[in-house]
Design a protein that fits this description.
Elements: H1 2-27, E1 53-62, H2 66-76, E2 80-81, E3 85-87, E4 92-98, E5 103-109, H3 115-122, E6 127-135, H4 138-147, E7 158-159, E8 165-169, E9 179-183
Parallel strand pairs: 1-5, 6-9
Antiparallel strand pairs: 1-6, 2-4, 3-4, 4-5, 7-8, 8-9
Amino acid sequence: MWGVAVPKLACMQRAAAASALGLFSRLQTPFPTMRTFSLSQPSQKVADPVWNLGRLNHVAIAVPNLEKASTFYKNVLGAQVSEAVPLPEHGVSVVFVNLGNTKMELLHPLGKDSPIAGFLQKNKAGGMHHICIEVDNINTAMMDLKKKKIRTTTEEAKIGAHGKPVIFLHPKDCDGVLVELEQA
């Protein structure tokens, strides 16, 4: 019995190996070159910047129900979640979700003139509103960006939710993203 089965098994193994070899040779066709991201310094020196970008401070999410969103991040995902803080000068209530290396800022409208109310009218379920990046000198950054024809949503920096000066860059000048710069 084994004498007959062994040659069949060997034959099947050779066929499988040949099939795999054919597949392997087809997989060896060249793939398109992929670019990789590197944190190393560029080989060409760029003009010294007059201000520097820092870390990502937070990603802001507009939410239709602040309590429900806070409960989700705290009880379902287990994140550290702050209490809601009303910021009437910005027309929002905020909750910060600590993610260790950065934060999420949950935004909810405060009053009829809130910019978040308009955002939620267009996006009923809520969604990403803006990103916030720290800068080492917000005043110098504002002057430099004006020279580069980047618009801001206000003429002057305001004090933001962290008690530091902030300015928002117009999304039409930032590839559709509302960017907040915050003094580090």
